[in-house]
Amino acid sequence: RRVHGGETRTFFTTAMWTKSLSMLDMDQEFETPISQIISGTMVARMEFIIKQLPRTADVFFLVKAQSFTWLTRKKHNFFEPDCALEFTVNPIEVGQSSFAFESIVTFTRASTKIILGHGLAVVVAIDKPKMKSVDIPEKIRTVLQNAVRPRQATHGLMLHELRNVLRFTLQPTQSVISIPIQVRFSDQDWNKHVNNASYFRFFEDSIRWIAAKGDGPVAQLAASPIETLSVDHIRETFAPQDCVVLVNPCLDTGTFQFELRIENGNPTCRGWAKMQTSKSRL
Q1: What is the Cα–Cα distance from 3 to 260, expressed in whole angstroms?
Q2: DSSP class of 194
Q3: Does the pTM exceed 0.85?
Q4: Alpha-carbon distance 282 to 276, whole Å?
Q5: What single string gives the DSSP state of each residue in 167-189?
Q6: Are 62 and 232 in contact (CB under 8 A)?
Q7: What angle do CA 132, 200, 230 make, to 5 degrees?
């Protein structure tokens, strides 16, 4: 609680959402894929935006870039009772037209809590009539600035690193792998565009496709667990469309670069994955 001009107001610095675990939240390795993690952080983030930020008629918010890094891997047993994932988000930085969230994902069971990883998301203020970025309205900026907390993660990407790793353009070359995908209606959300988590799934599936269909060092790298996965949203994607994911393997850094291109050839999203290798921190 803080006092402003004699009026006491309550500012919420975090939003939390808890999801019970089921077999639908696990992949073939009995782990929760990052695309599922992103879905949970998105719900917690919307909880903060809808409940804590003042409403405005002409401004809404879109995610520009986001990332998640594993700290601890947890293989789940869906016969264990009362298992859940806890998603906590809070603002860590406020800019002129954008602000950043940190997310913390925790596995919970009875009195046991294990932090699984940390994420980042950069959110941009958009003018509805013009569909262009605008300055954050002052009354919203005030709430955000009062809710800002220091970043808790000691690992993973910093905000400037997130921007840097996603600053590239792929050109079809001999080393770039092209993987066709179909954008389905079920990939869209209530905004009638492809959901943020779907892009993470496109890139996760591309890595696993290379591991299954490829050979040599590139396939070996793709068969490694994903340590960090980051996405930069360039423009909206709509279903149904036949798209292609361009994948550039970088063996020297143990990473993959991605670009999702729609039917007319325009890129709509870029991604970057750091794989867990013997040189990784995990």
Answers
A1: 48
A2: B
A3: yes
A4: 7
A5: -------TT-EEEEEEE-GGGB-
A6: no
A7: 70
d(CA 112, CA 211): 34
**Nearest-10 Cα torsion for 72, 281, 36, 16:** 60
Alpha-carbon separation of residue 110 from 30, 82, 84, 114, 157 (angstroms)? 20, 7, 9, 11, 31
Task: Provide the token pair at 278.
Answer: 């013997």
Between CA 66 and CA 43 the distance in angstroms is 14
pLDDT band at 28 (very low <50, low <70, confident <90, very high): low
Six-digit token string for 5: 């001009």
- Which amino acid does the sequence have at 151? R
CA distance 87 to 46: 12
Measured on CA atoms in the order 154, 156, 157, 159, is the torsion positive or negative?
negative
Size of the chain in residues: 282
Q: Which residue has the tokens 């991604």?
A: 271
**pLDDT exceeds cutoff 60 at 162:** yes
- Do 91 and 100 contact (CB within 8 A), yes or no? yes
Q: H or E stretch including 217?
A: helix 216-222
| Mean of pLDDT over the chain | 85
- Are 123 and 103 in contact by the 8 Å Cβ rule? The answer is no
User: How is 9-48 classified by DSSP, letter by letter?
Assistant: E-----EEEEEE--GGG--TTSS--HHHHHHHHHHHHHHH
Instruction: Name residue 149's amino acid.
Output: R
